[in-house]
Every structure is written in structure tokens, then in C-alpha cells.
Amino acid sequence: MHSSGKTPLIRLAKRDGMAGAGQWGIRIAAILLALVVGGLVILLSGNNPIQGYAIIVEGALGKTSGIRQTVKNFIPLLGTALAIAPCFKMRFWNIGAEGQITAGAMCATYFALFWADSIPQVPLLLLMCAAGAIGGGLWALVPAFFKARWGTNETLFTLMMNYIIIGVVKWLQGGPWEKIPRGSQQIEQFASNACLPRVAGVYCGWIVVLALTVFMFLYMKYTKHGYEIAVIGESENTARYAGMNVGWVIMRTMFLSGAIAGVVGFLLVSGANNTLYSGVAAGAGFTAITVAWLAQLNPFAMVGISALLAVLQKGADTLNTQMGIPASLSDVITGVLLFFMLGCEFFINYKLVFRGAEERHKRKEAAK
Where does the chain cross the membrane (predicted)? Predict the structure, then answer.
């Protein structure tokens, strides 16, 4: 009795492991429960939930124009999730992808604005892509250097750097790069040779991010660099004991992460928007964190999850226009689905243990 008094009524315990069927059972149950809760939100707004979900699917996938917009939403989500995956695998919490996208977009824009008249399309686009990768990589290298050299908190450092680069772009919009006549607080639209070509009705960024998916899978699973990232993620002390230069690996990995995010920035300015503005990343840097975690850092799983979120984004917009549901409620429905999908991963890894059940289990074990 004395020992049971000290035992909490409910406690969390880490699972030893769960079979694949059990994991997918929890995930499917979470999605079904999310759909029920989302349906209640639609019902409370005075609309039919079944009709609402039908409109979401129809709006995202029913027409060619909807599919193209869904693919445009998909590109930055997948690209940014791939960018942050190696950092997260290393347990370096890069919350700065939003800023790294913006830095890459800004560097690519420089060549679009000032070199478009003197360079043909293909070399110009390659130069813009390289500039975006270098800009994003260097922006990510700053917090990586401070972490490697002085052990600073990378979460706060990378988060704060988002606001710095966004502020720089705002200054460019209303200052040196503002289009003529001045006063619009906007940057000039790109010349045609600084814009990415379209493939299947959508700018070719979707080909780039799918190629990056294959690259990141091979890089993280089959290369020495990927092995070093995994070892550091498990234990920095083990990595040092094995002779790895942990600080160098952190900086190298963050440069790669920022470079991929910078390429996403290039894709956005030269493909989706054909100009630069301070909100170019549009939250992709934060939403991609959810994508990466739900995919458990598996690049191929990120493709499916990014596609699902892209469908929800486009479908929610259609829900807003066709059913008159406020955009905020559409965001709530998306948030509910994400909440349940993330929550189910918790229950896959942990279980709730009740005091009485635990004591009965101990008595059974003792009886054996």
C-alpha cells in the first residue's frame, strides 16, 4: 500500500516497440477522428460536413486549374521539408528555413533584376539557382558556426534570423529595388528570361523537388555524410569518440540545409511569383517542420504528406469561396487534421499506464 501511494494514478511509459500494423491502425484512427472533429467545425458553421469535404477534394483535384494550384502549393512544402530533414536528423533544430528561403530568393532576384538583359535564359536561370543556394547556405551557416564554436541555442538563433532577412527584403522593396515610379513598395516583375519554364501547365519546380527527394534519400541513407549526421543525432560524445569533427559536420549540414531552402526561394521568385516580396516564403518554413516530423524524416514519405497538405490548402480556399466559410475556420479544419496526425505519433511511441492496471500486471508476473 505504501508503494502504491507513491505511484501516480496515470503515467507515461515509452513503448518497447509497436508492430507496423498497430502503428498504421493508430494513424488511420487519428485521421478518421480528425475528419469527425473537422466535420463538427463545418456543422457549427451551418453547413453540411459531407458536402464540405466533397468541396475540398473537388476544389483541389476536380479541375485542371485546381490541380495546378495544388502542385504550386506542394513545391515549397516538399522542398523545405527536404531542406530541414538532415538538420533534424542531427538534432540541430533549424527553425530558420523561412529566412533561408527568403535569403535565397533575394540573391536570385539580384541577377533577375540586373543581369537579365545581358545573359540568355538558361545560363541566367542556372546563375540564379546557384545564387539562391549560396545565399540560403551562407545564411544558415551563421547560426551553425555559433553553435559549433560557442554552443549557442540554435532554435532561438535560427528563429530570430528569419526576421532579420525579412526586414532586409522589406527595405529593398521600399528602397533600392523599388520599381519606378516609386511609392508602390513593390519590386519589378522579372523579365521573361528570368522566369522558369512550365511543364504540364505548372512551372518546372515540381521536377526539381522530386529530383531533390531522390538525392536526399540517397544522401542520408547511403553516404558517409549521412552516416555522420545519424551518429551525431544519436550521441555527440559517441561521434567525437569515433573521431568525427562534430563542429564541422554541423556547419556542413546546415550549409546544405540552407542551400536547399535557398533553391526553394529561387523556385518561388522565378516560378511561382516572378518577383520578390518580404512574404515570399509564405509560412512554408514552419509548415515544413510538420511535414518532416510526420514523415519521420523519410524523403519519400514527405512527398505524400506534402501533397496531402497542398490539397488541404487549396481545398480550404475553395471551401471559403463556395460555402462562405470564413478563411479562419478553413485554417481550423487544417489545423485539426495536423493536430491529430502529430498526436498519433505520440501514442505510437508512448502509452498511458494506469496505477491499477500496472499493479495487476505485476501480480500476474509474480504469480508466474
Answer: 24-44, 99-116, 122-142, 200-219, 249-269, 275-295, 336-354
Q: Which residue has the higher pLDDT, 12 or 88?
A: 88
Q: What local confidence, expressed as pLDDT, does residue 7 receive?
A: 66
CA 300 and chain centroid, separation:
14
> Could you give the angle at which helices 205-222 and 224-234 cross, rounded to 10 degrees?
70
Q: Which domain holds residue 177?
A: 81-301
pLDDT tens track for 250-296: 999 999 999 999 999 999 999 999 999 999 999 999 999 989 988 88
Q: Residue 16 corresponds to which cell in the numbers above?
A: 518497447
- Indicate whether 21 belongs to any domain: no
Residue 95 near residue 158 (C-beta atoms within 8 A): yes
Assigned domain for 165 exists? yes
Q: Is residue 133 part of a domain?
A: yes
- Number of compact structural domains in the chain: 1
| Model pLDDT, residue 365 | 60
Instruction: Establish if 193 belongs to a structural domain.
Output: yes
